[in-house]
Design a protein that fits this description.
By secondary structure, the protein is α+β, with helices and mostly antiparallel strands. 57% of the residues lie in helices and 23% in strands. Strand 1 (79-93) and strand 2 form a beta hairpin.
């Protein structure tokens, strides 16, 4: 009878734990491989990281410039406006099938003691200033152009103008007669 029980209900022998361990190892390797592939697609590349770091550094520099400008503008009688000209820019946007017409007049606020230095530097670099204004407007997105005070665009232009002139002569920019037409 004891023999019948052994033959009738054989207890399956457990296979060695090696096969189970291999299954677990394969699952872990697959999970790690999927994580690596996802990290490859979602983490920025070395060039993208470098570009983001440079952009962050530029923004820190831009943020420091207006503080100096505000200190100099506490007494408005000590400043003067210098005309940087009319700017008329037409941008074609093929992906949206639209054309943008942007018109504005730009003025630089400069301390009176720096007026001569500014006019001399502007005479030498007027075309470079106009080109940088064009580049900044062409690279601006629609949100920046719809911003009421054009703050980010003005800060970018202010930074570029002061770099072109070689000194932080301009303390603030005024944008007048601004029109923005989307066709």
């Amino acid at each position: 009878m004891a023999d019948e029980q052994e033959n009738a209900d054989p207890v399956p022998e457990k296979k060695s734990g090696l096969f189970g361990k291999i299954k677990i190892l394969v699952v872990v390797v697959l999970v790690l491989a999927v994580e690596c592939v996802l990290a490859y697609f979602f983490l920025p590349s070395e060039d993208e990281t470098l570009a983001m770091a440079r952009e962050r550094q530029k923004m820190k520099q831009l943020d420091s410039l207006p503080d100096v400008a505000l200190d100099e503008l506490e007494n408005p009688e000590d400043t003067i406006e210098i005309d940087l000209g009319d700017h008329r820019i037409t941008l074609s946007q093929p992906q949206r099938n639209t054309t943008l017409q942007i018109n504005f007049h730009l003025h630089a606020i400069v301390g009176k003691e720096r007026q001569e230095e500014m006019t001399e530097a502007l005479e030498k670099h007027r075309n470079a200033v106009a080109e940088q204004v064009l580049v900044i407007i062409r690279s601006a997105d629609l949100n920046e152009l719809h911003e009421p005070g054009l703050g980010l665009i003005k800060r970018k232009i202010l930074d570029k103008v002061n770099r072109i002139l070689g000194k932080p002569l301009v303390t603030e920019l005024l944008v007048t007669q601004f029109s923005f037409l989307e066709q």
